[in-house]
Each structure stands twice: as C-alpha cells, then as structure tokens.
Design brief:
Layout lengths: L1 E3 L6 E3 L4 H9 L4 H8 L4 E2 H7 L5 H13 L3 E6 L5 E6 L1 H5 L1 H18 L4 H7 L5 H10 L10
Antiparallel strand pairs: 1-2, 3-5, 4-5
C-alpha cells in the first residue's frame, strides 16, 4: 500500500508512513498503558505489574524490552544487593505523552457517545478531565515543559 503526501508530493510506502512508524513503537494493548504509568515517575518492575494487574509477567517483560529498544524508556540497574531496577521515560518517551493524552481524551469522548450522549451534548459538557492537572502531571516529568501543550 502506498500513501501520497500532498505537501511534498512524495509517495510513502507502508513502512515509511508516519502513522505506521508511530504505531509500531507505541501501539498494542500494553505499551500505551506502560508509558502512561511511567509518566507518573520512575517505577520498579513490581510497581508496574501492580499498576497493570491484567498483564502477565512475560508480556510486561517483553513490552518493556521493546520500549527500551525503541528508546522510549530507560532501564536503570542499581548496584545494590538485592539488585534494584527502575524504569523511567526518556525524552523521547516524554515527547509522546501529548499523543497519549489525546488518545485518552478521544476515548472519553467516544465512551460518552457510545453511552447514548449526542455529539452536541458531549461537546457542550466538555471533557470530564482536569486538563490543568494532566498538563501539570506531564510537565513535572519534562525537563523543559511542554510549551505547545494546551
């Protein structure tokens, strides 16, 4: 499948499509949830496992390795006995948080419509999410803040 971009006139293959690239990195059932949890700050494996009870240990390990391979998270091993390992977002991982916030907000809106609210009702009510709190949460974990996130 080929995608044509109007801006450059370039024809992109499926593999070079920006949406495909993004979904290859953060797509799937668990990666967005893992990244979302790590936006709260560094977590140990057991803390991540407790925060996502439905994921099994093997899947969590695999997803963490893939996120580390793709430079989304950092695995810090401390020279202690017993060994201590913490996972945290890299700058690249932090940079995807506005995308995850948008997905979250879209999911809220979609759920409202599926529950019988009309689009107009849902838009009038607005999102039942404290955007200032979300923004503050994300900015707390960004070195330079998210200047463009509103």
């Amino acid at each position: 499948m080929l995608h044509y971009t109007k801006k450059s006139g370039e024809i992109l293959t499926y593999e070079k499509c920006p949406v495909t690239i993004t979904l290859n990195i953060i797509g799937g059932k668990w990666k967005p949830v893992i990244l979302w949890n790590l936006s709260e700050g560094p977590m140990r494996f057991s803390e991540l496992k407790r925060s996502i009870p439905a994921i099994n240990q093997m899947t969590l390990t695999k997803q963490l390795r893939e996120l580390e391979r793709d430079c989304m998270i950092l695995r810090n091993v401390y020279a202690e006995v017993p060994a201590r390992v913490e996972y945290s977002l890299t700058d690249t991982g932090i940079s995807v948080m506005p995308v995850l916030v948008s997905l979250c907000l879209w999911g809220i809106e979609y759920s409202r419509i599926q529950n019988g609210e009309t689009i107009e009702d849902s838009m009038d009510i607005g999102f039942n999410v404290d955007m200032a709190l979300l923004k503050k949460n994300i900015e707390n974990h960004c070195k330079n803040g998210l200047k463009e996130f509103n």
